[in-house]
Prior knowledge:
Number of strands: 11
Helix content: under 10%
Radius of gyration: 19 Å
Number of helices: 2
Shape: globular
Largest sheet: 6 strands, antiparallel
Strand content: 35-45%
Distance between the termini: 50 Å
Amino acid sequence: MITMLIVGTTAAGCSPAPKSLLAVERTSTGRARVLIAPCPGYKAQVISAFSSGGTVEYKRWSIINDAMGGSLDSVELFSAPPGWSVTRSDLNELKDGGEYTVVLNGGSNGYGLDGEITFTPDRFGALKAGEVIARDGKGSKTVKRADFMKKDAERCTPK
Length: 159
């Protein structure tokens, strides 16, 4: 009788975290501006911000793209750019003690492509000129604005 032992090997590894489609920067006047990464053909449809934790009450601010066309590379929180309408506005400022999440819904070439970033007012207030908060896996990190705005086809491809 012949006994055979077959041992299989399995390769395991972690794929790199997807690159962020969305970032938050501090304007020269101290307001929050959401940046959308450059993706050819991308159309943003809805942008929402909401309080998501800490000691602040849940509130939300949302805008929708009325024209459903054209590209948008940034929007100042709590202001609707031309061609967009405010659909909810009980959140109108970032308060200490809270955590905030911004969500972007949109698409490219017929495929959905969304983004999300969570941050605290403390982290936002610590941003220096030329820095943004961008998603890094399940968390976030501070990166150079120029690095975030570099074109990257991988992050622009729906998964």
